[in-house]
Specification:
single chain; about 130 residues; mainly beta; 7-stranded mixed sheet; about 0% helix
């Protein structure tokens, strides 16, 4: 089992940047595929980015491609989401997610592909 704790959210003006962190418990962090999802009020939780166990493969939803960067430090049991050029439509609660093992290339964006979730961190982008 793994426990996930997100941090780094806050209020930022459009065009600004934030860096989210997700700290994981346990000694087998490197065996987990990690993801970031977000949920805006009244909307379903949606995929933002994922990263493979080694960090060699990163995937993004189209709306954040080129603005967000996911990375991980397996020595620190932490995954990051660097968010640049933020837009008001990025406003949401951001969740860190994990699943032990590899996620099939056709399923990395599915909420149901991940077994463990953090409690989320609020990101608010003002116009």
């Amino acid at each position: 089992q793994v426990q996930l704790v997100e941090s780094g959210g806050g209020l930022v003006q459009a065009g600004g940047s934030l860096r989210l962190s997700c700290a994981a418990s346990g000694r087998t962090f490197s065996t987990y595929t990690m993801g970031w999802f977000r949920q805006a009020p009244g909307k379903e939780r949606e995929f933002v980015a994922s990263i493979s166990r080694s960090g060699s493969i990163a995937r993004y939803t189209n709306s954040v491609e080129g603005r967000f960067t996911i990375s991980r430090d397996n020595a620190k049991n932490t995954v990051y989401l660097q968010m640049n050029n933020l837009k008001p439509e990025d406003t949401a609660v951001y969740y860190c997610a994990a699943v032990n093992g590899r996620v099939d290339g056709s399923n990395y964006y599915r909420v149901s592909s991940y077994d463990y979730w953090g409690r989320g961190t609020q990101v608010t982008v003002s116009s």
